[in-house]
Amino acid sequence: MTEFYKGMIQTWRERQEEREEWQWQRAAKEKAKRERREELELRELARLNREKEERTEDRARAQCAKDAGLEAARKGKYPRCTQWY
Q1: Once rounded to an integer, what is the mean pLDDT over residues 30-59?
Q2: Which residues form a coiled coil (predicted)?
Q3: What angle do CA 80, 81, 85 make, to 5 degrees?
Q4: For range 44-48, the mean pLDDT
Q5: What integer is the mean pLDDT of 17-37?
């Protein structure tokens, strides 16, 4: 094999190694990006669930106050205001 071909093979191997390193780095960056996106999605879902639970609790509290007000009115007591200012 001539020096020319040996040089070409050596250059090809070096470029192949560089390409593999670049692909590995790109895969690592994409994995990190995907993990960050999934983490943000999980945080958003958790926030939405908390808000939904809070709304449910508020509705239950308002319904309870409304029922207590009806019970108080039935007993002749003055109903309490349930609105928040």
Answers
A1: 97
A2: 29-65
A3: 150
A4: 97
A5: 98
As to burial, measured by CB atoms within 10 angstroms (0-12 exposed, 13-18 middle, 19+ buried), residue 1 is exposed
Q: Is pTM beyond 0.90 here?
A: no
CB atoms within 10 A of CB 68: 14
Cα–Cα distance for residue pair 29/35, rounded to 1 Å: 10
Answer left, alpha or beta for residue 76, where phi above 0 means left and psi between -120 and 50 means alpha: left
Confidence band, pLDDT 50/70/90 cuts, at residue 27: very high
Compute CA distances 52 → 14, 26, 58, 85, whole Å: 57, 39, 10, 22
* Contact of 69 with 82, CB cutoff 8 Å: yes
Q: What integer pLDDT is reported at residue 81 of this predicted model?
A: 60
Rounded to a whole number of angstroms, the CA Rg of the chain reads 34
Give the integer Cα–Cα distance in Å for 54 and 72.
26
